[in-house]
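Intended use. Records like the one below are meant for learning the mapping from a protein sequence to its folded structure. Do not use them to infer anything beyond what is encoded.
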Amino acid sequence: MLHEQQLPLPVQLPVHAQFSNFIVGDNAQAHAHLRRLPLAEWQPQDQFTLLFGGSGRGKTHLLCALCEAFADAGHSSIYLPLTELATPEAVAALNGIESYDLIALDDIHAVIAIPEWADALFALFNRVTDKRNSYLVCTALQSTARLPIALADLRSRLQLAVTFHLKTLSDGEKVEALQQHAKIRGLELANDVGEYMMQRLSRDMHQLMGVLDDLDKASMARQRRLTLPFIKQILQF
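Structure written out for the chain above:
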């Protein structure tokens, strides 16, 4: 895990985001590509990676897991959540970060239409290219072709990235993900409880994980297991 003093901002990575607890589904190629980066010899064709896809497909999980893996391998890494930096003034966060072995930029769609950010990202891509021993991994909601990029040269750089379109999990895989994260919290989520949540709640994984956090707190406060009657009581269904 990164220490906060390594970051230009007080960013705390999620404790549970690891490759081992990522439900792969139809995203095996992206998962395997990222797992290889901190372990293999540096290759120029792997220098840039773009993960894109809709909300709740695990983009942030994979970036944070990658930072963990780089730290475990003795390499430096930095994670920047760009939705929290979407002002022209905050572009200074990119200064000098090419010195890290891994640069993980989450949600570049949040800043890429801002001219100051587009210029700074283009300059960062060039500095990373010149350094020739680090990786830049970005996430976005859309593919490079559909992103509203303020600078044509930056679009050209992004088109050089190894690109993966992350697919959404099936309902069964989402239940498996909930069970995996419940287990990490010391909870047991039975199949019928997970299926009930899928039937009654949004299928967006961010929202489902948020509900799981609430259930975890309620379970601890009331010293109750996550049974179906207890879930119905808490969720008021």
